[in-house]
């Protein structure tokens, strides 16, 4: 029979969880603090799983987790972190230290049963279902944060936390505006390289004939205009992280040179024959479809393998609707600054509009829309009228061809466009399907059929 240790100073919660675990056929053990738990574990056999609260008297949950990971016989025990106030920081911190899962209180019986089945199944390599997560308020920070409460973003945060504990190369994919550079920055800050530099390079913004010099540096006289020695970005990032944004726009010739550097961990500045060893973690990102580019011969498959040791995909905002309103409130608070009195709020109709919009520019577009509406709205309450510019092509040329559609196959682009137009019409009609059908110029039956085909019939 599996033994489950519960470390939590909330007597009522701990007793309730112990009762649930016992009802599920497992043996519960209890401790009120990390110190009590460590002492008990020195005297008893290792449990099959540990439920560990973040906030404890004495050492907090992360400190206890770190101690467990450094204690012989306990390094591999699955640890489930519990908190009443989940944030991106404590989620990433827990996963970086090797937590198996991160749950927000209260935790239901079915969720516990599923999770324990999954944990015990991992010991026999049997797959089990994922749990669902939520979190509360984020701690304010001046640093970029990878925010989100959707299950999709929780998965991104967890994978990022696990990647932070390694030095492996990471490839971040996602549409324009999803936050790939933010993810790279968070990864750097969560890693052991946080004391080193974070150097970002946009491969698409540098002319092809200058990219090699930009990355690897050059000696004086290496080419016309090279009046002095110059360190490249690899050398500048020594001991830290080099973020190569828009790696899909790198020319083929340069791809071959980058592959060699990743293999040998050495660079040779232009105009020299002296290889220079570099200690750099490379994080690359692209919004392009690399498999399609490989098939077309415009991106090297071997470089793709070398870059995607740890792949990290950030889903578009339209696929994580649960994040839209929390992000909007976050951006409203950021615009207002420290003055709570200056902060504006969203009306119910504005909320419905934002949730129904397709956001082709993703989080970046949402942030810009919130800042614009907040700056121009005459009242403290933002209504749907304050966001009409989202549906005005003349006000924003980007809507002529949304950024998220440009590189898609025609059928995929048409399907996404159809979805966006239907969602837009429903938002403008405040959910009235008859009115939405009239705006689209189709019959109600045709709208119902299209909604079913797009999986929107329950929206």
TrEMBL record:
Residues 3-120 form the Response regulatory domain. Gene3D superfamilies: 1.10.8.60, 3.40.50.2300, Homeodomain-like, P-loop containing nucleotide triphosphate hydrolases. The keyword Nucleotide-binding applies. The modification 4-aspartylphosphate is found at residue 53. Keywords: ATP-binding, DNA-binding, Nucleotide-binding, Phosphoprotein, Transcription, Transcription regulation. Signal peptide: none annotated. GO terms for molecular function: ATP binding; sequence-specific DNA binding. Pfam families: AAA_lid_14, HTH_8, Response_reg, Sigma54_activat. Residues 146-375 form the Sigma-54 factor interaction domain. One of its GO terms (biological process) is phosphorelay signal transduction system. This is DNA-binding transcriptional response regulator, NtrC family, contains REC, AAA-type ATPase, and a Fis-type DNA-binding domains. The lineage of its organism: Bacteria, Pseudomonadati, Pseudomonadota, Betaproteobacteria, Burkholderiales.
């Amino acid at each position: 029979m599996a033994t489950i240790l519960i470390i939590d100073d909330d007597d009522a919660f701990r007793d309730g969880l112990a009762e649930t675990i016992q009802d599920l056929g497992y043996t519960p053990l209890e401790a009120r603090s990390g110190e009590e738990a460590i002492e008990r574990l020195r005297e008893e056999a290792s449990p099959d799983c540990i439920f560990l609260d973040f906030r404890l008297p004495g050492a907090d949950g992360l400190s206890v987790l770190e101690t467990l990971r450094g204690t012989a016989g306990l390094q591999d025990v699955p640890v489930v972190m519990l908190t009443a106030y989940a944030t991106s920081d404590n989620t990433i911190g827990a996963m970086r230290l090797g937590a198996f899962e991160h749950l927000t209180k209260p935790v239901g019986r079915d969720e516990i049963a599923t999770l324990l089945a999954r944990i015990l199944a991992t010991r026999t390599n049997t797959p089990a279902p994922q749990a669902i997560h939520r979190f509360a308020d984020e701690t304010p920070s001046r640093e970029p944060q990878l925010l989100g409460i959707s299950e999709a973003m929780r998965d991104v945060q967890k994978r990022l936390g696990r990647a932070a504990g390694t030095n492996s190369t990471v490839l971040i994919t996602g549409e324009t505006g999803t936050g790939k550079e933010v993810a790279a920055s968070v990864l750097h800050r969560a890693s052991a390289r946080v004391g080193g530099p974070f150097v970002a390079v946009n491969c698409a913004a540098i002319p092809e004939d200058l990219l090699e010099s930009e990355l690897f540096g050059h000696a004086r006289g290496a080419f016309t205009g090279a009046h002095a020695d110059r360190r490249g970005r690899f050398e500048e990032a020594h001991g830290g992280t080099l973020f190569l944004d828009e790696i899909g726009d790198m020319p083929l010739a340069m791809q071959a040179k980058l592959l060699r550097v990743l293999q040998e961990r050495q660079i040779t500045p232009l105009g020299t024959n002296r290889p220079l060893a570099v200690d750099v973690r490379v994080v690359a990102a692209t919004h392009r479809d690399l498999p399609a580019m490989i098939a077309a011969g415009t991106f090297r498959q071997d470089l793709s393998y070398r870059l995607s040791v740890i792949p990290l995909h950030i889903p578009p905002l339209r696929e994580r609707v649960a994040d839209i309103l929390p992000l909007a409130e976050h951006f409203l608070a950021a615009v207002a600054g420290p003055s709570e009195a200056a902060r504006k709020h969203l009306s119910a109709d504005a909320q419905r509009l934002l949730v129904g919009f397709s956001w082709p520019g993703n989080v970046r577009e949402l942030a810009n829309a919130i800042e614009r509406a907040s700056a121009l709205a005459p009242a403290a309450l933002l209504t749907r009228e304050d966001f009409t510019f989202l549906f005005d092509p003349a006000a924003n040329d980007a809507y002529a061809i949304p950024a998220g559609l440009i590189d898609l196959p025609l059928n995929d682009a048409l399907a996404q466009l159809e979805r966006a137009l239907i969602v837009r019409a429903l938002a403008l009609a405040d959910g009235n399907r008859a009115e939405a059908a009239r705006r689209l110029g189709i019959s109600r039956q045709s709208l119902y059929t299209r909604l079913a085909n797009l999986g929107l019939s329950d929206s």
